């Protein structure tokens, strides 16, 4: 059998078994949380200059937490989630990512580094939790299986 790449995963990055995590526009699917992240990055540009740096840093450490909790708790079957929650939590995460970008562009590199280190720490914690809960292997397997079409 000749396997073909499922190019739709480039946009949604979700295999067919996870289409409930996507937004469908015509024949295209977009990841719900990533849609929120991109929106959050754009929104962050509009009020970045209105915040003092201490408040901005505090919010940058708090705003990603709902996305981390929503994703992790859903993956280990502790909560139900839906695209509304994914978009909102993605929006909050996106605001933080936008601020990291803006700090980088305005020569506040040390703040960007702090924010990015925090996001990396959160990603490592999520990975460890999923591994300990014995769901990480299945998580990757779904993606590997969804990448190719027969």
From the spread of the alpha carbons, the general shape counts as: globular
Radius of gyration: 17 Å
H/E topology pattern: EHEEHHHHHHE
Strand order of the largest sheet: 1-4
Largest sheet data: 2 strands, antiparallel
Q: Could you say how many structural domains there are in total?
A: 1
Structural class designation: mainly alpha
Classify the helix fraction into a percent range.
55-70%
Number of strands: 4
What's the helix count? 7
What's the mean pLDDT score? 93
Low-confidence stretches: none
Q: What is the strand content?
A: 5-15%
The N- to C-terminal Cα distance equals 7 Å
Question: Quick recap of the structure?
Answer:
With 150 residues, this protein is mainly alpha-helical. The chain has helices at 9-12, 32-47, 53-62, 65-75, 83-105, 109-132, 136-147; strands at 4-5, 22-25, 28-31, 148-149.
Task: Please outline the helices and strands.
Elements: E1 4-5, H1 9-12, E2 22-25, E3 28-31, H2 32-47, H3 53-62, H4 65-75, H5 83-105, H6 109-132, H7 136-147, E4 148-149
Antiparallel strand pairs: 1-4, 2-3
Helix pairs in contact: 2-5, 3-5, 4-5, 4-6, 5-6
